[in-house]
């Protein structure tokens, strides 16, 4: 049995420098993934949004979500993804790339699981499960 740790996930991941390095590699990977860019709406946005700003916002968000002192200043997940019509299959491709990068950086299993739980909480705002007209307004 492992000793329970009181350190936040942010601290266990190594803080902002380590998180920014993982986000850097992850965004480089997803932005050129042909399976994600097969969605023309995602492809268009991936070529319009400057990578550096995207990495900045995702780093802020991961730092905040893991218990760091940063505050996320970007749009809500629903507002920044609704127009992309992301499918469950595309979400799975995204998750596979995430896992590959966490493995590449040798993030331990426990921290990977906690990250996947956090990422999973946003799925409902990002993945379009039904026609937009069927979604509740507001
Ligand atoms: C947990 C999962 C995800 C997180 C945390 C996340 C995070 C973000 C953030 C922080 C932004 C910028 C918001 C802003 O501009 O203020 C964004 C935009 C974007 N995301 Fe995600 N994202 C996730 C999943 C996905 C997936 C699965 C895809 C593609 C398949 C995707 C593609 C994009 C694209 C293309 C944009 C730019 C949209 C635009 O400006 O038109 N994201 N995301």
Order of helices and strands: HHHHHHHHH
Count, helices: 9
Model regions low in confidence, pLDDT < 50 over at least 5 residues: 133-138
Helicity, as a percent range: 55-70%
**Strands, total number:** 0
Overall pLDDT confidence: 92
Keywords: Heme, Iron, Metal-binding, Transport
Pfam families: Bac_globin
Protein name: Group 1 truncated hemoglobin
Task: Give a brief rundown of this model.
This protein is mostly helical and 138 residues long.
Structure, described:
By secondary structure, the chain is mostly helical. It has a single domain, classed as Globins (Globin-like, Orthogonal Bundle), CATH 1.10.490. Helix content is 64%, strand content 0%. The chain contains 9 helices and no strands. Helix 2 crosses helix 5 and helix 2 crosses helix 7. The longest helix has 17 residues. It is globular and about 45 Å long. The protein starts with 8 loop residues before the first helix and ends in a 12-residue tail after the last helix. The chain binds protoporphyrin IX containing FE. The site of protoporphyrin IX containing FE has 20 residues, from helix 4, helix 5, helix 6 and helix 7.
Topology of helices and strands:
Layout: H1 9-13, H2 15-31, H3 34-37, H4 40-48, H5 51-65, H6 77-81, H7 88-104, H8 109-120, H9 123-126
The chain binds protoporphyrin IX containing FE.
Protoporphyrin IX containing FE binds at residues 36, 42, 45-46, 49, 57-58, 61, 74-75, 80-81, 84, 86, 90-91, 94, 119, 122, 126.
């Amino acid at each position: 049995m492992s000793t329970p740790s009181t350190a936040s996930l942010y601290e266990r991941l190594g803080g902002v420098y380590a998180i920014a390095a993982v986000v850097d590699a992850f965004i480089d990977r997803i932005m050129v993934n042909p399976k994600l860019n097969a969605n023309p709406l995602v492809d268009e946005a991936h070529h319009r949004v400057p990578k550096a700003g995207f990495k900045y916002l995702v780093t802020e968000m991961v730092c905040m979500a893991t218990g760091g002192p940063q505050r996320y200043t970007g749009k809500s997940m629903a507002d920044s993804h609704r127009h992309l019509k992301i499918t469950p299959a595309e979400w799975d491709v995204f998750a596979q790339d995430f896992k590959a990068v966490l493995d590449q950086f040798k993030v331990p299993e426990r921290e990977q699981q906690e990250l996947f739980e956090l990422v999973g909480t946003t799925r409902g705002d990002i993945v379009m499960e039904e026609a937009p007209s069927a979604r509740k307004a507001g």
